[in-house]
Amino acid sequence: MDAIWPAAGLTDGSVLLRRWQPHDSDQFVALFDHEVARWSPQVSDQSDAALRGRLEQAASMPPEHLSQGYAIVEAERPDHLLGATDWRTSAPMPPFSLVDIGYLFGAHARGRGVATAALRLLGGWLLSPRGGDLRRIQLDHAVANAGSCRVAEKAGLTIEGRRPQFLPLRDTPGGPLVFHDTCLHGRVRPARTVG
Ligand SMILES: CC(C)(COP(=O)(O)OP(=O)(O)OC[C@H]1O[C@@H](n2cnc3c(N)ncnc32)[C@H](O)[C@@H]1OP(=O)(O)O)[C@@H](O)C(=O)NCCC(=O)NCCS
Q: Residue with the nearest Cα to atom 13 of ligand 1?
């Protein structure tokens, strides 16, 4: 991906996706409640110190660097954090041309349509010539995570199938890892006319 993240971020007028800033730290840590812990794969340390460290690192990247992680805020109140999004490459690029998207929202932000708006906005940019110009974006959520399924569909990522035993989650805090079946969603770059 040789895109450059727009200096002013991405906005649809209601939500704004922008680079992390050091002062987001407290609000960032506060996003990680039991719902986030319940549905997020346990791939990284989610202690407060580790979360603050991740945020500091993202905030210190040069502005043109695609940090692969962005703050989601209200467009009218850019200091008011709603959620976080990132993307990962699951296959070597090139020749692959796809990313997996993740997202999470604070309890105060849920149920207002912001997840749908943010995912639609990010997906449109990643698949556009101005953005990543990828061929495909995708995401997996646990089959039981009905909210994430609805958000993905409404944002234009259609359901493509199931992946059995794909996602390691902790159903209870401190409990054992349980490998959940996931629902895979994808959205591909629109066909382009030449000339
Ligand atoms: C799942 C999550 C992203 C939804 O965010 P949100 O901002 O509340 O979603 P929206 O307001 O955009 O809602 C979009 C649709 O999903 C539905 N929805 C949202 N949460 C839901 C839930 N828990 N159960 C069923 N439907 C739900 C809404 O009703 C809406 O559908 P509608 O327009 O047909 O009424 C958010 O609750 C969250 O961050 N959860 C914890 C982390 C997580 O699950 N991340 C995704 C991991 S794959």
A: 113
